[in-house]
TrEMBL record:
The lineage of its organism: Bacteria, Bacillati, Actinomycetota, Actinomycetes, Mycobacteriales. Pfam families: HTH_1, LysR_substrate. One of its GO terms (biological process) is DNA-templated transcription. Signal peptide: none annotated. Coiled coil: none annotated. Transmembrane segments: none annotated. PROSITE patterns: HTH_LYSR (PS50931). Belongs to the LysR transcriptional regulatory family. This is Probable hydrogen peroxide-inducible genes activator. Keywords: DNA-binding, Transcription, Transcription regulation.
């Protein structure tokens, strides 16, 4: 939408209020601004348009013929502005409209469906279009209102709100550990062992921490997948050591002993998951409502685990 107006729309609305109240002082009071500001805006509007809108003397204020015609248009603009305000205020009370969301497959179908159902149940005037994606997408370029993503933002025009952090732990199958020449007791040993890498966030170094000590490691990647279930199956098959979300999808395997922790005192860097959306949608009631549902369901999932 092009915006090549030769004048300030706000000044046009000020002009309309002056005509209605037939007084600069009354208009200023209604608008909540100093009389000098009203006078300045009117003078600037007349200068921009190159015409006289008002005739003023010590006793009265009258509108020129051309000013009357412009006032008629100003009334329509003011009416449309009020409609916009009413629509915005209404959306704050009850989110409505369609929200298009991209969620990575690693977050999981169960999580995405429960968040979507919670959101739709609470907001009957909303519509929701969720797409599960297997790579990073851009909300503006790819046509989404909201995307879930990891890692630092690459675009300053976007906003990221953290939904949850996936706490990770190192693990392997007992069979894989039995085949090793020596027990894994230090992080540096991982640099020589096959690693199962979760690949949605792109290739990155493995960082593990214990209290204030940190190690950055570069283990040889035997396999990579952008889905934790696939990674878990590789680890269960004894193909290498991997980092998995704490308990959320490994509860049964840990209980049964099919997976065992490796270096349990060393913690991999958490995987932060953010809701990302354009800055211009930062006041969207739909996005705020979806964020609330997303946070609530992850809390329930952790409690269930």
């Amino acid at each position: 939408m092009e915006q090549n107006l030769p004048f300030d729309l706000d000044a046009l609305l000020v002009f309309g209020k002056v005509v209605e109240s037939k007084s600069l002082s009354k208009a200023a009071a209604l608008l909540g601004m100093p009389k000098s500001t009203v006078s300045r805006k009117l003078a600037k509007l007349e200068s921009d348009l190159g015409i006289k809108l008002l005739r003023k003397n010590t006793r009265q204020l009258t509108v020129t013929d051309l000013g009357e015609q412009i006032y008629a248009h100003a009334v329509n603009i003011l009416s449309e502005a009020n409609h916009v305000r009413a629509l915005v205020e209404g959306s704050k009370q009850q989110p409505q409209g369609e929200l298009k969301v991209a969620i990575p497959v690693f977050v999981g179908i169960d999580y995405a469906s429960r968040v979507g159902a919670t959101f739709l149940r609470r907001h009957p005037h909303s519509r929701l279009d969720i797409r599960l994606v297997d790579n990073m997408v851009d909300p503006v370029r790819d046509g989404f209102d909201v995307v879930f993503g990891t890692g630092p933002l690459q675009d300053s025009t976007l906003i990221a709100r953290k939904v949850f952090s996936l706490e990770l732990f190192l693990c392997a199958s007992p069979d894989f550990l039995r085949r090793l020449a020596e027990p894994v007791t230090e992080p540096v040993q991982l640099n020589d062992l096959p690693f199962i890498d979760f690949g949605f966030a792109g290739q990155r170094r493995l960082t593990v921490a214990r209290n204030k000590r940190r190690h950055e490691l570069t283990p040889p990647v035997r396999a990579r997948a952008n889905n934790f279930q696939v990674c878990k199956q590789y680890i269960l098959e004894g193909l290498g050591i991997g980092a998995m979300p704490t308990q959320i999808i490994c509860t049964d395997e840990l209980r049964e002993g099919a997976l065992v922790p490796v270096l349990p005192q060393w913690t991999p860097q958490p995987l932060d998951v953010h809701m990302i959306y354009p800055f211009e949608l930062s006041f969207s009631a739909l996005i705020s409502a979806f964020y609330e549902a997303a946070c609530e369901i992850i809390t329930e999932n952790i409690a269930r685990a």
